[in-house]
Amino acid sequence: MRRSVRVGGLTLVACATLIGCSSQTGSRSEKAASYQLDAAAAEEVGRTVARTATSLIGSPYRYGGAGPRAFDCSGLVFFSYRAAGFGIPRTSQQQFSAAMPVTIEEARPGDLLFFRYGRKVSHVGIYLGERKFVHAPSTGDHVSIASLQETHYSEKFVGAGRLRVSNR
After folding, report:
1. Tens digits of per-residue pLDDT, 124-151?
2. Which of 24, 70, 95, 137 has a CA positioned 20 to 30 A from the CA of residue 120?
């Protein structure tokens, strides 16, 4: 049975490329699917995604990389969800478009955090809890944990989003 991600949320038009992070135009206006995993199962998926991503800490950054040996930011997200058995969009902008907005207070492990460098959303990380996230920062760096309490990230933070996964 093929698993997939469904979309929903607000309409925002954004596309950009952070040095080292794929991005593409998209819309957040599509309706979310009426069938979803129950809350407990969805939370377990999120924890699995977060565990997978943290197991990759230290992996090198490579623009366009989607694993298993090197990653860009959206490639890390893509790989981590795929390891949990779910196909999701590949680029940070497509992931932003597919995510249902949640507040940082509502965010739970496995949710996505989006950042804007310049005028458009161009970077993504996987939320771990306690305002921390795992991401593939940029060329010359490695997959690592960062915090929204760091000024660099708090100033670029656009919002959190939850991918709606189903077992359709």
Report:
1. 999 999 999 999 999 999 999 999 999 9
2. 70
Q: What is the pLDDT of residues 104-121, one digit of tens each?
A: 999 999 999 999 998 889
Fold of 4-166: endopeptidase fold (from Nostoc punctiforme) (3.90.1720)
Domain residues of the chain, as ranges?
4-166
Integer Cα distance of 12 and 25 in angstroms: 10
Written as six digits, the tokens of 43 are 């939370």
Is the Cβ–Cβ distance between 98 and 7 less than 8 Å? yes
**What positions carry a catalytic annotation?**
73, 123, 135
Sequence-distant (≥ 6) Cβ neighbours of residue 114 within 8 angstroms: 92, 95, 96, 99, 121, 123, 124, 157, 158, 159, 160, 161
Give start and end residues of each alpha helix (H) in 20-131: 39-55, 73-83, 92-98
CA atoms of 162 and 20, how far apart (whole Å): 23
Rounded to 5 degrees, what angle do the CA atoms 58, 61, 62 make? 145
pTM of the model: 0.80
- What count of other Cβ atoms lies within 10 Å of the Cβ of residue 159? 20
